[in-house]
Protein 1
Amino acid sequence: MMNINKSVDNFNEIDKTQIIKEIKQLKKSKNAIILAHFYVDGDIQDVADFVGDSLALAFQAQKTDADIILFAGVHFMAETAKILSPDKKVLMPDLQAGCPLADSLTAMQLLELKKKHPDHFVVSYVNTTAEVKALSDIICTSSNAVDIVNSLPEDVKVIFGPDKNLGYYVKSMSHKKDMIIWDGACPVHLNFSYEKLHDLKKKYPDAIVLAHPECDKKILVKADYIGSTSKIIKWTQELDAQRFIIATEPGVIHQMKKLNPNKEYIPLPRKDGKESICVNMKKHNLEKVYLALKNEQPEVTLDKELIEKAYRPIRRMLDISEQLGLK
Ligand code: 13P
Ligand code: SF4
């Protein structure tokens, strides 16, 4: 066992390979698995048992027989894992890894909206708190949002939140035109520069533009393909092109390079020329993963009643996704 005290700073001197070895041993001895989102640091993706988008991670959380799930993602994702696996211990390397988009719609705000529109069906993006999920009729992710909305009867009116860009994208792609869309957005996807995209397209006319639906409409109309993180990664492998402009958090490029190192992946920058990073996803690191597994904390806990209420709309989404073969 390594001689590690609790201060994360001390890890700088410790050999990464040793930490990875310790993490693997802890996973085995504690029957733990690591689920990681594509936006976390590549080192964590490499030590994870499963790396995926929000929908795939939810399915994994539901089906695992591990005793402990270490969730390397943002808070709402770990909450979803806890809701789907309430008897398991769900840990996060850093509990402060939140999602500003999820926080942009509170349970109180949704309650008020529901009161104003009592005949509307609430479709909530998975990027929401457990409290908001508990007030929703169905959940969707970026990967299944259009199909979920299309699965609703034609006369059903919809409240969609909290991401307005995904909302307007869904509205344009589905048969549902009667939608009240909440005014929330993801700062990471909102910050992409339209001018820089224009310049890059001019410089590399052969490049394929792949965008996440959380991007602003100005970016989406210039994209060749729009989809979830896993779809974006898949397209870089399947399409017969050598160069891609990536309009989502650049953590996805880690998997792209692993799957096909010979292609070129250009992260779309922000207006200031810097990469648009999700600072919350980057709060996790290998040292925190090690400590969380060793100390079995910080743990994600939720009230039993809240779990039961939030479970129903997630279950509905998973059932429809299964029926449609969207896993
Ligand atoms: P995906 O479900 O496409 O992985 O997206 C999650 C997310 O938070 C995007 O910002
Ligand atoms: Fe939330 Fe945006 Fe980070 Fe996704 S990229 S987790 S929506 S802040």
Protein 2
Amino acid sequence: MAQSTEKLVIIGSGPAGYTAGIYAARAALNPLLFAGTIPFTPGGQLMITTEVENFPGFPKGVTGPELMELFKAQAERFGTRVVEESAIEVDLKSRPFRVKADSQEVLAESIIIATGASAMWSGAKGEEAYKNRGVSACATCDGFFFKNLDVLVVGGGDTAMEEATYLTKHARKVTIVHRRDALRASKIMQDKAKKNPKIAFVWNSVVEEVLGDGKKMNSARLKNVLNGEVQQVEAQGLFVAIGHKPNTELFAGKIDLDAKGYVKTTPGTTRTSVPGVFAAGDVQDPLYRQAVTAAGSGCQAAIEVERFLEH
Ligand code: NDP
């Protein structure tokens, strides 16, 4: 049987992917959207967030999962076909492109890459072994389990401040471990963390090793990067908040990526180095990384696909 060719395949189901779906479906492109399966977090990073207070149109705030349900419902309302599978292989050498997913292979006249980004890990000894046994990258997902316990947060950016502040709702004490003596976080977030009596800072330090009894972590060895001094601190939790890496393994060697692995797009557009392949959201944005900017670029990508297919 001849394989049908999709006009548009969208890979990814965060704000960028679903917004591209809304616009492309309304433009009669009948998009097929691969939403991903765990560990790709269908719905994207907002699925592991609680309250979203800065998405316009929600003056009272909305939870991340609720917001993504609404995105999905709106994309489906206009006919986006959402498939709960991950794209596992792509061939972008010639059009139509080939996209292989968990249980099917499709041909596509155009593709929008919206695979987002994932949390990075510190690589400390013991970190991997104690993941989900104290070590986490998501305070809002796991913070609840640390009621009246001591936890560490690694990082000096907005995420670290946000996670630390959130964790004070549950934990007894939160210690932020940062590799320098100045925070990268915005002033408002820094002030909030510094004013919180439950938050302490360990400067110029990194986590060298996560220790525990084999079942759960109970302490960590922190190394001062200036004088090499090592101290062991008791902590039942370690939250790593040191940034994200784009989910572009699938596209390496197939389209141009920058030095950090983000998809390169022509400035002001979502065009990638391969005509007919567009990229939207965090996968091509190391700078803003907001739900609303991701949604905006998803809209842009759909409009660009429409124009590309017309010509
Ligand atoms: P950032 O890249 O801003 O910060 C990462 C932090 O981790 C830095 O302080 C960095 O140190 C540190 N770091 C990086 N690698 C390591 C390592 N291997 N070991 C130890 N420390 C390390 O990432 P964020 O996730 O914090 O923020 C990303 C973007 O999202 C930012 O633009 C931020 O403003 C935005 N954001 C906004 C929020 C909001 O407005 N509500 C909430 C969360 C994020 P160093 O400073 O030395 O480089």
Protein 3
Amino acid sequence: MNEQTYILVIDDERGIREGCRRILEAENYSVETAENGKQGLDLIQSKPFDLILVDLMMPVMGGLEMMEKVMTDFPELIMIVITGYATIETAVDAMKHGAYDYIPKPFAPDQLLTVINRGLEKHRLQQQAKQLMEERDRRLLEVANEKSRIHTIVNSMGDAVLVINRDQQLVLWNPAAVKMLNITKKLKPGQDLTQIIFQPDLIQIINKAVDPKAAHYTSISEEIELSKPEAQTLMANVSVVRDENSEMLGVVCILRNITQLKKIDRVKSQFVSMVAHELRAPLSAIENYITTYLTGAAGDDPEFNRNMLERSRKRAHSLLNLVEDLLQISRMESQHVSRKKQLLDVSEIINNTVELLKTQAKDENIGFKIDVPKPCPTIEADRGEMEQLFTNFISNAIKYNVKNGNVSIIFESTENFLIMKISDTGIGISEEDLPHIFDDFFRISREETRYVTGTGLGLSIVKKIVESNLGRINVESELNKGTTFTITFPIKMN
Ligand code: ADP
């Protein structure tokens, strides 16, 4: 900061000008001089001064005329008049023209310094007052900005916010609160809570928090169930606000809609219990076989014992399949599948899959018909996933077929899509089972499927694969006639 003090001396008498300069420079003030009002005004306009000493009687432009102009443009500049006529009238006139003080000629150096220092002190105080005013204005602006910032934050929150005083009156709220609690009335600060909120559970928690006779709560968190306008679960967190003397002022209530989280939680527990159920049957069968063998209850017939071991092996194998499918589902759901997408000719995958599964179809004498265009339009997908997808569909078409039945695989294409139809002439699926076949663990129990093994996870995996490749899947079926799965994928060419 520049601490130098700048003083301008305006007088037509050279002796006064130079005399003042000497006295003031000896005090370390920076001094400039002017011979008349016009010169003085030009200097004031070109650079800042802290104080000016001005003579009244000067040629070109007199002191009073100049002071009038300075007063309008530089109201904070301290002006001290040097006058040869030290009368009350002159002094009053000079003050009216904006002078802070005056000094009669001739004057001694210490007289000049006394007046100058008084003027500079006034200037310093004036500057200080100005700074304080600016600081206050800045603070006020900051407070206003802060208020509007908090307002914006509270209003844009997804959680509902309600601030309630100890008399249970509404102080502040946000749009999320209005929506979540289905408040239809126009809200005003000071409204009684019970006139606006009709959720008894919520009112009860707030009552508990504000009740001076109740325990000294800091906050209460509880789940509440709402039935209107739709069934929702909210997590209410009511925090008690106290002053420095622990006097309760009111509560801040934050409500979060946890309906979706609760649903996911429920689905997860259902899934865990389904998995446990699915694992229990084969495991207990294996345990039974082993127990029968170990206790000797099966007798010595080697054929019978071998048969039991063979059955245990089959159940263990199906358990492994189940665990494999479960692991794949969990990988897909946690988005941790590493897919290597590439352009694929699916007709080649179909031919290979059919070749591999033909032995499975041999016993029942199931025939295959493959009708795919050559060249086949390519799609972009992971080879391993596509192999699994067709293996599931074709193996189901064999498993749920009838003796001497048929499986046909027909591809059609439009400009943008490859449409793959896998049909069988098998046992079909009833209308009521059809919507559930892509659900986890869904298996239809019928006389015809009694000896067909499976996990009930194949189609649910297939659906996830199709969706993750932006494809579509559709199924049509007629009981005892057959089933057709139609899978549509976007064509992607080189
Ligand atoms: P699974 O391991 O039991 O084969 P999926 O998820 O592949 O499990 O299939 C679910 C159920 O849908 C099967 O158990 C079966 O009842 C029925 N299903 C699937 N594909 C066919 C089909 N082509 N024909 C008749 N039923 C089928």
